[in-house]
C-alpha cells in the first residue's frame, strides 16, 4: 500500500532533502506526490527544460525506497507564459481579463496554453518514463476553474454545440428558443450565458456541459502523451469529492483510478457525513477504489486557519476513507511552508521542520495500514443499495432550483445520512448504470429524467427492485425542458401516483406531517410539498393542513415483483428520513451488519473471500457499539464480545463472515 505526503522539495534548500527522505522512511512512507506547481522550475524559459533538481530529489527519495507521483504542472503557469501569450489568461464574467499571479487562471480553449501544456507534459514524460522512482502521474491539479468568457471560448462553445446538435433547428428545439423570441439564425449569434440563472435554461445547462467537456479534453491531451510515453506508469487526478462544476464520471474515464483531496476537519462537523458521501462519489465515478491524494495534516487555512487535527483524529479520518474503498493515502503536506499563500495550511511537520506529534501520529497510522494492506488487497465496497448521482440534475437544479433553496446534493444528503446512520453502504451511480445489481435504488430529486432512464427504472421495479424517489424527480427532460406530462411522468406506474399540483412552502411556514404504518410519527414539511393523488399506491403520510388533507405526502406502491416509494415533501427532521429509509431497506431485504450509535460509522469491504467491517468513532468521547461476538479485530488481534468499546476517534476492523456472492 502506498502511504506518504505531498512534497515540495523546491521550497527548501537541497541540503534538507536527505533529512526529509529519511524522516519519511522512518514514518513508513513509501510515496510522495510532487512537482505539480513547479512548472517554472522545470521550464524556466519557453522550451528550455531543467530537470536536474527534480532528478536529484527523486534520487534521494528513491534511495530511501520512496516512490513518486509527478504532477503535470499546468495548474499554475509561469510568468513568462502570461507575458508571452497574454490570451492564455481567462476572461472574467465582466469581460475583463484576469491578472496573472494566482493559480488556475488559464483559458481552456487557448491553443497556446494547450500547446504549452502538451510540451511540458511531453518533456516530463520523456524524461521520467524510465525513472524507477516515478510510479505514476497526476494530471494538473484539481480541475474545475476558471470559467472563461473570452471570444475564443465563445467560438469553441458554438462549435461544440454545432457538433452536438448538427442543425440550428435542433438546437432551437432543444433550447426552446420560441420563448421570448430567442430563435437563433446562425451559430455565430450564440452567446455565452453569462448569468446562467437568467439566460435560457437549455443554453445554461449546455454551457455547463461544455465547461466540463473542456476540462476533460484538456486532461485528455495530457493523458494521450503520458500513455504513449509512460505505459508502465499510472495516471490519476486529484478530484474534489462533492465539487460541482465537472462531471467526474467523464473526467475519470481517462484515468486508471481517481484520487481525491479530503479536508474534513475544516468545517468541523460533529459527524463526518460529507467525507463519506464524497468518498462514495469518488468510488462511484469509476466504479472502483480510489486514493486520497491530499488530506488534513494540521490546521488548514490561507489567511486564517481552522482547528488542529486532534490527537487520534488522523486515524479516524483515515479509516473512514479506507473503509469506503481508499487504497492509497497521502497527507497534504509534508512540511508547512514558510512562504506564499499557504503558510497557514499546516503539514505533518510544522514550519520548524521538526518531527512532532502530527508526524508521529501519521507514522503510527502508516504502520497500521501497512499491516492491514494484505487483507485490503482485492476488497472493495459492494453494497445492495445505490443512489443515482447525476451532474445534469445538479446543474439544472442550480440553474432553476424550483422551490427556494433546492439543492441537489443536499437533497441526496438527507437520504445518504440516513443510510449512514443505519450502517448501510451505498454506491453512487450514474442514471445509465445497471440497476439490477442492487436491491434498493434511491433517486432523490432526480430532476432531469430522460425517458429511457425512466423506462429502465420502471422495468427495475417490475422485476423486483425497490425504488425510492422523491419530490422534483422527473420534472425535466435531457434538454432541460419540462416534460409535458403529469408528474411523476413515466414513473407514475411504478410509483402508483399522480401529482397534479405542487407548491413551495415559504421559509416562515411549515406543514405538520402525520405518518402511519412504517412511517408512524409526526414530522414537519418545509420548503416544498407535492399534492399527491395515489393511483394504486398506499398513502403512508399526509400534510395536516386543510388544503392538503386529501392528498398523500408519502406513498408505497406494489408494482410487479417490486415496490416504488415516494416522498413528496422535504422534511425538517432527520427522523423522517431515518424512518423512510428503514422502511425501504426492509422492503428490499437489506440489513445492516451493525447498527452504529450516533457519531460512529460502519462500512464493509469485501472480496477474495474476505469481508472486513470498519467501525470508526468520529467523536471525542468513548462509544460502545453492539457487534457480533467472536469476530477478530484485525488491528489488535482481539476477539469481540457482544460489545465493542471504541475510545475517542477509535477505529476497529472486524473480520466478518462471508456472505453470498452476488
Ligand atoms: C488543495 C490543493 C493544494 C493546496 C491545498 C491547500 O485544494 O490541491 O494544492 O492548495 O488545497 O490549500
Please render the helix and strand layout as text.
Elements: E1 2-6, H1 17-27, E2 31-34, H2 39-42, H3 52-63, E3 67-71, H4 79-84, H5 111-128, E4 134-138, H6 151-165, H7 168-175, H8 201-229, E5 234-236, E6 238-239, H9 248-253, E7 259-262, H10 273-286, E8 290-295, H11 313-323, E9 326-331, H12 357-376, E10 385-388, H13 391-399, H14 408-422, E11 426-429, E12 440-443, H15 451-462, E13 466-470, H16 492-495, E14 497-504, E15 511-515, E16 521-534, E17 538-543, E18 554-559, E19 562-567, E20 569-571, H17 574-588, E21 600-607, E22 610-617, E23 623-626, E24 643-646, E25 651-655
Residues 141-142, 238, 261, 294, 332, 342, 345 line the site of beta-D-galactopyranose.
By CATH, the architecture of the largest domain is named: Alpha-Beta Barrel
Q: Low-confidence parts, pLDDT < 50 over ≥5 residues? A: none
Strand content: 15-25%
| Fold-level CATH name of the largest domain | TIM Barrel
Using only C-alpha atoms, the radius of gyration works out to: 26 Å
How far do the termini sit from each other?
Answer: 27 Å
Counting structural domains, the number is 3
- What share of the residues lie within helices? 25-40%
Query: What ligands does this structure carry?
Result: beta-D-galactopyranose
What is the number of helical segments per DSSP (H or I, 4+ residues)? 17
Total number of beta strands: 25
CATH secondary-structure class of the largest domain = Alpha Beta
Amino acid at each position: 500500500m502506498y502511504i506518504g505526503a505531498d512534497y515540495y522539495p523546491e521550497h527548501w534548500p537541497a541540503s534538507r532533502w536527505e533529512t526529509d527522505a529519511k524522516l519519511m522512511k522512518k514514518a513508513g512512507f513509501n510515496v510522495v506526490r510532487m512537482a505539480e506547481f513547479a512548472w517554472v522550475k522545470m521550464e524556466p524559459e519557453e522550451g528550455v527544460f531543467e530537470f536536474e533538481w527534480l532528478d536529484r530529489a527523486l534520487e534521494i527519495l528513491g534511495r530511501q525506497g520512496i516512490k513518486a507521483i509527478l504532477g503535470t504542472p499546468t495548474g499554475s503557469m509561469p510568468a513568462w507564459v502570461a507575458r508571452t501569450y497574454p490570451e492564455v489568461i481567462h476572461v472574467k464574467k465582466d469581460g475583463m481579463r484576469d491578472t496573472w499571479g494566482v493559480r488556475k487562471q488559464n483559458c481552456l480553449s487557448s491553443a497556446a496554453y494547450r500547446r504549452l501544456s502538451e510540451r511540458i507534459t511531453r518533456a516530463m514524460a520523456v524524461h521520467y518514463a524510465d525513472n524507477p522512482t516515478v510510479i505514476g502521474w497526476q494530471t494538473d491539479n484539481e480541475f474545475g476553474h476558471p470559467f472563461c468568457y473570452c471570444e475564443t471560448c465563445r467560438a469553441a462553445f458554438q462549435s461544440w454545440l454545432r457538433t452536438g446538435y448538427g442543425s440550428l433547428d435542433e438546437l432551437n428545439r432543444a433550447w426552446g428558443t420560441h420563448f421570448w423570441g430567442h430563435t437563433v439564425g446562425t451559430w455565430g449569434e450564440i452567446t455565452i450565458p453569462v448569468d446562467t440563472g437568467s439566460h435560457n435554461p437549455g443554453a445554461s445547462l449546455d454551457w455547463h456541459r461544455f465547461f466540463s467537456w473542456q476540462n476533460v479534453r484538456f486532461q485528455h491531451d495530457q493523458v494521450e502523451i503520458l500513455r504513449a510515453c509512460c505505459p508502465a506508469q499510472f495516471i490519476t487526478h486529484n478530484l474534489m469529492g462533492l465539487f460541482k462544476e465537472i462531471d467526474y464520471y467523464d473526467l475519470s474515464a481517462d484515468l486508471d483510478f481517481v484520487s481525491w483531496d479530503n479536508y474534513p476537519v475544516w468545517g468541523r462537523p460533529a459527524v463526518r457525513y460529507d467525507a463519506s458521501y464524497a468518498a462514495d462519489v469518488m468510488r462511484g465515478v469509476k466504479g472502483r477504489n480510489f486514493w486520497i491524494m491530499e488530506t488534513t495534516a494540521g490546521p488548514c487555512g490561507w489567511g486564517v486557519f481552522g482547528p488542529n487535527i486532534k490527537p487520534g483524529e488522523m486515524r479516524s479520518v483515515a479509516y473512514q476513507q479506507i473503509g469506503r474503498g481508499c487504497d492509497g493515502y497521502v497527507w497534504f503536506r509534508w512540511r508547512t511552508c514558510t512562504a506564499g499563500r499557504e503558510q497557514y495550511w499546516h503539514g505533518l511537520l510544522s514550519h520548524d521542520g521538526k518531527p512532532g506529534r502530527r508526524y508521529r501520529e501519521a507514522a503510527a497510522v502508516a504502520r497500521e495500514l501497512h499491516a492491514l494492506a494484505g487483507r485490503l488487497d482485492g476488497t472493495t465496497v459492494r453494497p445492495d443499495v445505490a443512489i443515482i448521482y447525476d451532474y445534469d440534475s445538479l446543474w439544472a437544479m442550480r440553474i432553476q432550483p424550483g422551490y427556494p433553496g433546492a439543492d441537489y446534493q443536499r437533497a441526496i444528503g438527507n437520504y445518504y445520512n440516513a443510510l449512514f446512520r443505519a450502517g448501510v453502504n451505498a454506491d453512487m451511480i450514474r442514471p445509465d448504470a445497471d440497476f439490477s445489481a442492487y436491491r434498493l435504488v434511491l433517486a432523490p430529486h432526480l430532476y432531469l429524467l430522460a425517458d429511457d432512464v425512466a423506462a429502465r427504472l420502471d422495468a427495475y421495479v417490475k422485476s423486483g427492485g425497490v425504488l425510492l424517489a422523491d419530490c422534483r424527480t422527473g420534472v425535466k427532460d435531457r434538454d432541460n425542458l419540462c416534460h409535458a406530462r403529469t408528474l411523476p411522468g413515466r414513473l407514475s406506474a411504478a410509483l402508483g401516483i399522480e401529482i397534479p399540483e405542487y407548491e413551495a412552502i415559504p421559509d416562515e411556514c411549515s406543514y405538520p406531517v402525520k405518518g402511519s404504518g412504517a412511517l408512524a410519527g409526526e414530522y414537519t414539511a418545509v420548503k416544498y410539498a407535492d399534492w399527491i393523488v395515489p393511483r394504486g399506491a398506499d398513502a403512508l403520510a399526509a400534510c395536516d393542513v386543510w388544503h392538503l388533507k386529501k392528498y398523500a405526502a408519502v406513498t408505497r406502491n406494489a408494482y410487479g415483483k417490486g415496490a416504488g416509494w415516494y416522498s413528496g415533501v422535504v422534511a425538517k427532521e432527520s427522523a423522517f428520513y431515518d424512518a423512510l429509509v428503514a422502511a425501504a431497506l426492509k422492503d428490499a431485504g437489506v440489513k445492516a451488519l451493525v447498527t452504529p450509535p450516533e457519531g460512529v460509522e460502519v462500512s464493509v469491504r469485501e472480496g477474495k473471500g474476505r469481508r472486513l467491517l470498519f467501525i470508526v468513532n468520529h467523536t471525542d468521547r468513548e462509544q460502545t457499539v453492539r457487534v457480533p461476538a467472536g469476530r477478530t479485530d484485525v488491528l489488535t488481534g482481539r476477539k469481540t464480545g457482544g460489545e465493542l468499546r471504541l475510545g475517542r476517534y477509535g477505529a476497529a476492523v472486524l473480520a466478518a463472515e462471508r456472505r453470498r456472492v452476488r
